């Protein structure tokens, strides 16, 4: 059983460590207020959340600020639980960790864009369908 928990911790939190190392080296941070629907068929489920686009030299990550906080608190909770086993068992309780409403994340790395999302507690990742062809023009706009 201990082996299971070690593999769980490794598989679940290794990507977080990978992203956090790259986020720490970000050069630019752009803040957004995103508005989205929890249920696209119901306009009354509209929510707002702050998000950040962290841009580094070779990698960028777009993620909800609340999800960033939740991920950090979950990691701390797991590390604390792993260092204090109860009767030889690691018990992970993340019920007190606040959750984000906006789950998708977009990672740009190595020329590829990968989207991470959660649907009904199932986690998915897939490549972005189309590459954006940016066209920079000499225009300005006051918003």
Would you kindly provide a written description of the structure presented here, covering whatever features stand out?
With 143 residues, the chain is of the alpha+beta class. The chain has one domain. The protein is 29% helix and 31% strand. The chain contains two helices and six strands; from the N terminus they run H-E-E-E-H-E-E-E. Strands 1-2-3-4-5-6 form a six-stranded antiparallel beta sheet. It starts with a helix and ends in a 16-residue tail after the last strand. This is GLPGLI family protein.
Question: Based on helices, strands and strand pairing, what is the structural class?
Answer: alpha+beta
Number of helices: 2
**Averaged pLDDT:** 81
Q: Which percent range describes the beta-strand content?
A: 25-35%
Number of E strands? 6
N- to C-terminal distance: 56 Å
Rg over CA atoms, rounded to whole Å, is 18 Å
The side-by-side strand order for the widest beta sheet comes to: 1-2-3-4-5-6
Largest sheet: 6 strands, antiparallel
Identify low-pLDDT runs.
1-10, 16-24
- Taken from the alpha-carbon principal axes, the silhouette is globular
> How many domains?
1
Share of residues in helices = 25-40%
Question: Helices and strands, in N-to-C order?
Answer: HEEEHEEE
């Amino acid at each position: 059983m201990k082996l299971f928990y070690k593999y769980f911790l490794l598989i679940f939190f290794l990507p977080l460590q990978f992203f956090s190392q790259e986020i720490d080296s970000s050069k630019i941070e752009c803040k957004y207020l995103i508005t989205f629907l929890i249920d696209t068929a119901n306009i009354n489920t509209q929510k707002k959340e702050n998000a950040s686009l962290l841009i580094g030299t070779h990698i960028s990550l777009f993620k909800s600020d609340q999800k960033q906080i939740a991920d950090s608190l979950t990691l701390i909770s797991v590390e604390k639980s792993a260092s204090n086993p109860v009767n030889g068992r690691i018990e992970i309780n993340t019920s007190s960790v606040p959750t984000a409403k906006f789950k998708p994340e977009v990672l740009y790395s190595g020329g590829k864009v990968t989207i991470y999302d959660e649907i009904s507690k199932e986690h998915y990742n897939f490549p972005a369908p189309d590459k954006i062809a940016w066209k920079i023009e000499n225009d300005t706009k006051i918003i």
